[in-house]
Design brief:
By secondary structure, the chain is mainly β. The chain contains one helix and nine strands, in the order E-E-E-E-E-H-E-E-E-E. The strands form two sheets. Strands 1, 2, 5, 6, 7, 8 and 9 form a seven-stranded mixed β-sheet that branches. Strands 3-4 form a two-stranded antiparallel ribbon.
Length: about 130
Amino acid sequence: MDKLFVYGSLKKDGNLHPALDDSKFLGDYITESNGYVMTSAGNFPFVFYTTPKNPFHIKGELYEVDKKVLNLTHRIEVGAGYDFKEIDKGIYGYLYPTPIIGETSNSIRVNEDEKYFEWLNSANLTGN
């Protein structure tokens, strides 16, 4: 079993979450490593690594996945141009390979106090 970190449309309230239906939800998770930026391409986020001087983390969800689910998420995410990377020790996820200037979006929450970006799928946008 592998631990998969998701932060966008694969989250519980995202339209691609059915790919994780057979996986064990381990909880909300904020990356231990920092250096990330989140931008948007409309209905989904781009997350990429910048520099360790950047204090920002990414908030998402953590799942325990088997090889079948990992193969499915690879087809979705790697097929869309993302790279599969070790985010934190033993925790893997999909990052965009190069910095991309996307849009600012109401779907991106920036927590300045705790220094993280979080993607809010449309179900979570009310009241924010």
